Predict the structure.
Amino acid sequence: MQLKREKFEINLNPIQRGGILTKEARDALIEFADGYSICDFCPGRLDLILKPNIKKFVHEELPEFLGCDLARTTNGAREAIFVVMNSLKTEKNKSKIVLADGNAHYSSYIAAERAGLDIDIVESSGYPEYKIDVEKFEEKIDLNKPILILLTYPDGNYGNFPDVKKLSKICKNKGVPLLLNCAYSIGRLEIKLNQLGVDFLIGSGHKSMAASGPIGILGFNKEWEKIILRKSKYFPNKEVEMLGCSSRGPSIITLIASFPVVKERIKHWDEEVEKARYFSREMEKLGLKQLGEKPHNHDLMFFEAKPIYEISKKHKKRGYFLYHELKKRGIGGIKPGLTKNFKVSTYQLTKKEIDRVVKAFEDIIKKN
Ligand SMILES: *Cc1c(COP(=O)(O)O)cnc(C)c1O
């Protein structure tokens, strides 16, 4: 069977834009494509391998990048969230409630479920901005005494950034640890644990760090070492939450290979925000409406597209017309069938490419 993939000149899919491999990662991927290829010189644990130098990456480069003492790679952001939840659960006399923002990703709920915990929510402001007012956490913390606070930064629907510094102060006051889910931010912009005052940082290599994945990253300070990195009673060298070894293979190799480029690209985040705002303004001129924070602070944008939806009601291809019209123009990444609402990202697109997308929407609306 031949496995082929539909490729577009311009891909707007938010989950894919930050995971496009660098040239370095694409080469490394082939070099390390065979199973267990990173294990040639393993001294007994993945994060201690010197050839290739995973040890330096996990023990020096990642903690420095994240502004914290310790880091590990996991098999995804959700797995890293699960690691934290499952570890905190081992502490005695704690509640079973995780208090999360109303824009949290579905995988945060499932991670809690898998860890045997319940989720309580601080609702967003709803349509059209869906903002999270972090002050609302205070009351709920008093009410529920949660074992963990989870904040999504930004969320994967609207690309909103809640006030994490304000929340970290509240959490410190109340003595509750704070997990910051940065699946859409670590690798795109600078995120430092100590500056933000949070306890746990979570990232996604395939979402935002130009890695094939699946791979997640977890950063924290030494105070949590005993709980998160507790060792096996059967194999004293192995860490229980990593199941001994976590992301073994092309996932970590591509992450390491792209890392120098990623460290460089986060310095240009301002330009990405500018491009996103420009795109949002241009789309609104065409009668679409960007939901979420405005002016927007992230390349992930949610649009309500009434003019497109109106066309779809009369078009013979119905909701699929948009997909086909964009495809004709070399543009992909909006789910086939969607017209009323959709998410796009302009991350790492050039101004010229963004103009081409705007022009495509303009033509499609005029023509139909
Ligand atoms: C994509 C995403 C995740 C899941 O990331 P994985 O690395 O695939 O587990 C979690 N949270 C948010 C906010 C996301 O956007």
